[in-house]
């Protein structure tokens, strides 16, 4: 009987560990981001919110999403006010503040409305083409080369910095900017959402340059959380990443030609 009692006690402990509930609500500020995060009125959905809600229900974690501009979202992560930063490219600065869980591989590209201009082979060529105006989204970060490139474009007086992707798409559509630098799925998602730029997708030209290589994209879990909550969330996100559900989500939302050169499985 004593052995059976010990076994039962161990089973109960294992069951409690398996439940692995989060100790509090998990704050996830988000900004509209292609298919990754979609906003319809008061509802926040898209690939990442939907997956988090689904996994959270099974793991005893309640995610509280609130809509903020991208720059504010990143600032909240830096200040320890965002428990999860998603979607996020991996960077050394962000690694200091949280644990990164990769979901997909992606890369930013030069995106413009197709025309007669000569191709741009690298960052040097872009910087030399001083007649070209470039629009980017505040808070986006594709690594050190990207940061150096947009800083130099700013010094040249050729840079527009906008609050979201839709604003950038409208600049391109109006001819007020000549190109942007971001992931093609972000631009495709913005075009799908905004009637003012409908039909623009088939007119786009996408160019890869060596200074914008493939990166990991996924989610950061903040170290401001309790260690036990961090473990629960990292484990949950790892399961999502290994299942390839994020890549499948992209395939449901976008045409193959949008994904081919810019998104690949983890």
UniProtKB/TrEMBL annotation:
Organism superkingdom: Bacteria
Name the UniProt key words of this record, in alphabetical order.
Signal
- Name the record gives this protein: Transporter substrate-binding domain-containing protein
Organism lineage reads as:
Bacteria, Pseudomonadati, Pseudomonadota, Betaproteobacteria, Burkholderiales
**Gene source species:** Rugamonas rivuli
Which stretch is the leader sequence? 1-19
């Amino acid at each position: 009987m004593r052995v059976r009692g010990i076994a039962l006690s161990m089973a109960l402990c294992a069951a409690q560990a398996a439940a692995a509930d989060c100790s509090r609500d998990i704050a996830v500020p988000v900004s509209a981001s292609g298919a990754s995060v979609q906003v319809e009125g008061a509802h926040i959905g898209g690939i990442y919110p939907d997956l988090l809600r689904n996994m959270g229900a099974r793991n005893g974690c309640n995610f509280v999403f609130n809509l903020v501009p991208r720059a504010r979202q990143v600032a909240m992560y830096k200040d320890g006010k965002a428990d999860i930063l998603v979607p996020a490219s991996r960077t050394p600065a962000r690694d200091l503040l949280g644990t990164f869980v990769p979901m997909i591989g992606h890369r930013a590209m030069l995106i413009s409305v197709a025309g007669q201009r000569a191709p741009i082979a690298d960052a040097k060529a872009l910087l030399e083409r001083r007649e070209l105006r470039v629009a980017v989204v505040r808070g986006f970060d594709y690594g050190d080369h990207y940061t150096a490139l947009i800083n130099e474009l700013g010094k040249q007086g050729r840079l527009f910095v906008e609050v979201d992707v839709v604003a950038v798409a409208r600049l391109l559509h109006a001819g007020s900017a000549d190109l942007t630098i971001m992931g093609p799925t972000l631009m495709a998602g913005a075009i799908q959402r905004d009637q003012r730029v409908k039909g623009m997708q088939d007119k786009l030209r996408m160019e890869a340059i060596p200074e914008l290589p493939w990166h990991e994209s996924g989610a950061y879990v903040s170290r401001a959380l309790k260690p036990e909550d961090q473990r629960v969330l990292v484990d949950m996100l790892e399961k999502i990443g290994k299942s390839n559900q994020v890549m499948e989500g992209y395939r449901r939302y976008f045409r193959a030609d949008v994904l081919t050169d810019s998104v690949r499985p983890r």
